Recover the amino acids of this structure.
């Protein structure tokens, strides 16, 4: 019987404590990967989901709020901006494309976003990625009562081409706030993995002139999404100076994705807490291995002495004991990947549902290598002390 | 030529307030291949220490133990381990089976550190001791007598030249003691192994062709049964 098989027997013999240890290692390993790898993936995915825009121009207010509202369809708009302001910014030479966004209504909790059809037909939301419609769909025409539904929203709402719906006032669904207008779905977007998936797109005039909306704001918009011409490196600085430093009516969020990165940076204290918790769990898991093997070493002294009497070398019993620690850690690491996958997909599902941003928990990240290796290192270190005890076991004293 | 030859063997242990206490002092002893010898001695007569010295578990202070011409006392610890795995079988008073293993696996353990596992031979041995139908039982599912029979099979598993039996009938009722004795003796004979059987039971004298009184063989004065593996 090989030392590996004997180590397996040892782990199996103390199955309750072994399972607890394996679970502790799994928890520690998955937490370490979640805190580092998954968090990095979330940051990159959110920063990458900028819809292919360089900047967002909105009413005076928080840059984060403007970005969250216009690009991620999450927050409320801090106010309205004049159509003239939108037209003015489109004339700026460095602007390649600008699209107006207007929000304020929903359908069963899914936000209606008013824009121009060019946004869905001419704009690339990521490099070499254009919006595409599911088969049989068409885009809405300006000033029509048609809608194009984001893939996630369509799936959740069970909407198909030809379906009709009444918009509801506000960004939060309130059954009593139904507008009279009836919109017809003319197209469903193919999945993009961006926030565009979780909204319903309608012509901008639809939001502006919806019954019950203030007629005085019939030409106002919530924000303008800006794409700079390639090589227009100074455009951001110049517009930042123009709108943020010299002006006082509008706010330019530029670069759009840095606003999100800065947001993640602001909550980095929370990451540190999570990292400390993960490190603590890892230490506890290591301590658990040490405690189990060390405490059971007294009862195992006789077994070790018997093995030695049968001809096992000191190094063999040392190896068996160390293999038990390594085996438990390995099992914990494998289980950790399973826990990570389950938690990662579950969190990813929630994030996609809430934000439309697609997260892939298995995007390559160094933490997915160093976290398991680190746990293995802790396992080996924890196994050393009890293994030394096994190595030093006095055969003649423990045979009787 | 003797299989086992002991000359001027001395082993002493430190004792509180008394300095070194000599436990084993054997001037000369020989055991021939296939021979079966009963070593009779009371508790504290140094019999377990003597067996541990022969097995290479304990190192002698002086003297020599030649087993198949090889001086156990001059071997490194690693070489003594290998010598034990290769040439010796050990039967203990309290069986010393490993509870996490089945009967068959316990027997196979007796081979693991020597030539390697031979399942067929392990099954043969279990059948020989009447436990073929208990091969997948664990020790805690067996009676005392059955446990000792598994231990006997394990001691023969590596086809040893010499079997050391340390009070193997001490924890058994008379019926099982008789069965165990008969099995050890016959299995040693069948496998060509010599047997050094230690017991304080006077009734076993008639079962052996050669009986040695340990009190005469061991010239050491044993004062204590505590510590250092002294018995």
């Amino acid at each position: 019987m090989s030392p590996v098989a004997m180590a397996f027997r040892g782990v199996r013999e103390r199955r309750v404590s072994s399972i607890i240890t394996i679970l502790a290692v799994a928890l520690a390993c998955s937490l370490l990967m979640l805190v580092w790898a998954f968090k990095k993936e979330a940051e990159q995915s959110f920063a990458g989901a900028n819809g292919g825009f360089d900047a967002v121009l909105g009413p005076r207010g928080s840059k984060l709020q403007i970005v969250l509202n216009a690009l991620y369809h999450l927050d409320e708009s801090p106010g309205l901006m004049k159509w003239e302001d939108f037209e003015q910014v489109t004339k700026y030479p460095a602007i390649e494309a600008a699209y107006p966004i207007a929000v304020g209504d929903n359908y069963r909790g899914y936000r209606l976003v008013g824009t121009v059809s060019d946004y869905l037909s001419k704009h690339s939301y990521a490099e070499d990625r254009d919006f595409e419609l599911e088969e049989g769909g068409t885009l809405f025409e300006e000033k029509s009562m048609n809608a194009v539904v984001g893939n996630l929203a369509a799936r959740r709402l069970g909407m198909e081409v030809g379906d009709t719906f009444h918009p509801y006032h506000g960004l939060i669904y309130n059954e009593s706030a139904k507008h009279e207008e009836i919109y017809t779905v003319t197209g469903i977007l193919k999945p993009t993995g961006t926030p565009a998936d979780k909204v319903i797109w309608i012509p901008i005039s639809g939001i502006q002139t919806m019954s019950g909306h203030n007629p005085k704001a019939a030409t106002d918009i919530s924000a303008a999404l800006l794409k700079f011409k390639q090589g227009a490196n100074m455009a951001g600085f110049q517009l930042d100076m123009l709108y943020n430093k010299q002006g006082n009516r509008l706010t330019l969020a530029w670069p759009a994705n840095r606003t999100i990165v800065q947001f993640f940076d602001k909550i980095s204290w929370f990451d540190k807490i999570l990292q400390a918790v993960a490190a603590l769990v890892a230490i506890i898991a290591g301590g658990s291995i040490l405690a189990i093997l060390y405490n059971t070493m007294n009862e195992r002294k006789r077994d070790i002495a018997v093995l030695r009497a049968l001809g096992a070398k000191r190094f063999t019993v040392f190896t068996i004991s160390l293999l038990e620690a390594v085996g438990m850690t390995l099992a914990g690491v494998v289980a950790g990947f399973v826990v990570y996958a389950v938690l990662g997909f579950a969190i990813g599902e929630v994030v996609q549902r809430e934000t439309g941003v697609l997260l892939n928990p298995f995007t390559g990240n160094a933490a997915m290598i160093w976290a398991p290796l680190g746990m293995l290192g802790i396992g080996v270190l924890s196994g050393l002390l009890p293994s030394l005890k096994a190595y030093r076991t006095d055969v003649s004293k423990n045979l009787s | 030529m003797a299989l086992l030859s002991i000359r001027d063997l001395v082993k002493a242990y430190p004792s509180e307030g008394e300095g070194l206490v000599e436990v084993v002092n054997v001037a000369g002893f020989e055991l021939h291949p296939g021979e079966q010898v009963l070593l009779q001695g009371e508790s504290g007569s140094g019999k377990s220490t003597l067996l541990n010295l022969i097995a290479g578990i304990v190192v002698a202070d002086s003297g020599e133990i030649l087993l198949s011409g090889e001086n156990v006392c001059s071997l490194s610890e690693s070489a003594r381990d290998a010598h034990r795995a290769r040439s010796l079988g050990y039967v203990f008073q309290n069986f010393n089976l490993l509870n996490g293993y089945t009967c068959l696996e316990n027997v196979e353990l007796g081979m693991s550190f020597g030539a390697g596992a031979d399942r067929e031979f392990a099954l043969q041995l279990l059948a020989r001791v009447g436990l073929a139908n208990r091969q997948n039982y664990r020790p805690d599912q067996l009676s005392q007598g059955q446990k000792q029979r598994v231990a006997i099979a394990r001691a023969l598993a590596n086809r040893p030249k010499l079997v050391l039996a340390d009070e193997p009938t001490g924890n058994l009722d008379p019926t099982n003691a008789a069965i165990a004795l008969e099995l050890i003796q016959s299995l040693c004979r069948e496998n060509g192994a010599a047997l050094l059987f230690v017991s304080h039971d006077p009734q076993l004298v008639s079962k052996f062709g050669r009986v040695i009184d340990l009190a005469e063989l061991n010239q050491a004065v044993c004062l204590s049964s505590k510590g250092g593996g002294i018995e």
